[in-house]
Amino acid sequence: MAGITLPLEEYCASLDGNCLPKILQVCSGVYFQGSIYEISGSEVCFSTGDLIKVIGIELQSVSCEDVSNSNRFELPIQHTGLFKIVPEQMPYSTVDEMMRLRPIGLESSLPFTFTSRTKITIGDFTLSPGKELTVRCFEQLEDGNECIRCFVRGQQEASAEVCIPLSTKGEFYECESEECFSLSEIMTSSSLRSRRFCFANTTKSKQPLLFTPVYQIHAIMNLRKNILKFPSSLEVDVIDVTDICKADFVTPLNLTEILSQPDENFPAVVEILEGPGSRAMFKCNWLSELKTQNKLIFHKKGSTALVLISNLKSRKAQQYFLVSQHYAGRFKRRPREFSSVYEVYAASVNVPGLKVSVTRNCEEIEEEGVPALSVGEHLEIVRCERMELPNAQDDKQRQTVEALLCYRQADEDDEEEEEINIVGKEEMYLPMYMQGNFVEVLADNKKYKLKDLGKEFSLPMDVKVVTKDSELENDPLATSNLRIEAAMVEPVIQASFLNCPGQCFDIPSKWLSMSVYFTNECLPWPRDHPPKCRVETVTEVTDEFLYEFRKQTTADVTPPPRPPKRNVSTSKSIKKSKKKSKNKAETAPSKELADLTLSWKKRPPAPPAPDDDEHPPVVPPKTPTTPATTTRKAQPNTYVKMQDSIKKAPLKTAADVDVDSEHDYETVEEFTTVIKKAQESVFFFK
Fold first, then answer.
1. Domain limits, the chain
2. Mean pLDDT highest for which of 50-54, 90-94, 657-661?
3. pTM across the whole model
């Protein structure tokens, strides 16, 4: 069937699984429910001209077509029903033609019943038309000719056997057979699949059915890494081009799959099928060249030790670098700065015997257990313990908090503290929630290589580059104050471009997404004479990389503890003392402030204070009188409005006024004066 265009279903129905693989080319057709669809989780799309390499077929079900009305339905291959062969209505001109066109082999097709519409004469024996003949076996005559031995049922249950040569001519028709076949037997025989069947069960339909197998095709396509699986029932026409097609089926590989390739495949030339895209995590020159259809040399694969380094925040732009431990520069350690006791504790876990110096004075807060610290004091971190807070009235109210036990050593200028240290070290507890300013005390002035720093000290660590890497034309780490954040071992692929094969760079496969395929191109250097490779050791990364890195590597860190709740009685006494001191300061204001009001006008003098038994006079209300005529309306009186507003708010006595209050409330005497003036104004206008 090579070179003949066939529907995919018809082609697969006649396909022998032993002759695979086969290469098919898509000619035309209507795609199944659209040009792009999903079958069993795989997206499938066929276009005219696509090449499909069939590597396997798997029978899934059987498509049954009712010949009378063209209705179709499917049956599973495990269907347990039986089927009978529907006799063909076409006549056969010879016995040999009838037997050779049987759907099954000559021996396995027996017994077989047929009739003849014409008279058959064999020597002295004559068979009348319409007789049913049942073939029992094949025989070889003495003259070398073949014949069939048939059983003939005559009148009154009489029977006879007769040998009919295969060359006998006439008009022969096959009769309905009682032999039944299962669905799996029909599908495994290529001759039975071409026949029509009906259900052997008489209660079911007797309409003739045409069976077509539905396979799940396993195939590969160009530029697809996964094996495609799709049904043979797709409405698409194909042509077999196995004998004439010389195309190579390219399999794309991502960087993780490249790492799983054997070492013998390297070095090799690869072509980029899909670049990293716009979501880049690196700032480097080689990243912009990783475009589709560009070619690279993959020298080797492996793992390399890297460290994540950041410059200090004092610079305008925060930068982050992935640095190989082959970096040839030299570093000096720098003291770290801490802004809380908890940060000091976190650093002391990795550095036993950590020493820090106080860089800012700290006042004592007795109720929170915070001691006083002075600039220049040296603290040696011992361990974490629990301390009891002071100012507890009874045992039930006592609180214990986590604190850092330290040995305090004063500055050399403090003679008093120096005498204490001669006798013994002074112990001090610093609560974990205490804020302060500390700096690490270092006595190390040695120059280190990057790989030596990772062996001798724990991270994070502040360093400074004192000698740059001479192999780098422009060392971005030179003369910079840096922090080594973390160390890692990453799988990388050493690569370079074809135009400069010796200038290599490491591609971290975990942090870069791209797909390539191995080409058959020769390497751009003489055989067994590879170039000397120089690998970049510093690669700047973006904030996106830092976010992803910390999301994957940072564990759940417990936040620093909060200060304890203060005692209610203690807090009240503190507030009262603060208010009294504040009121004392307010009792003696300057003359200018005393004369100022909110409207920047001088306050009128206060009325004389009345005696204790004296109350403000109450004027009895005047009986209302209705004037006969009103020719003019009086202007609204602002004092009346003030009186109404005063009535709405309840008056406070002198005892109710808090003497410690910070607000400048008016006294009762001032209220009395205002009420008197308001009443006099009302009487005046009446």
1. 1-82+182-248, 87-175, 253-307+489-553, 336-441, 598-686
2. 50-54
3. 0.53
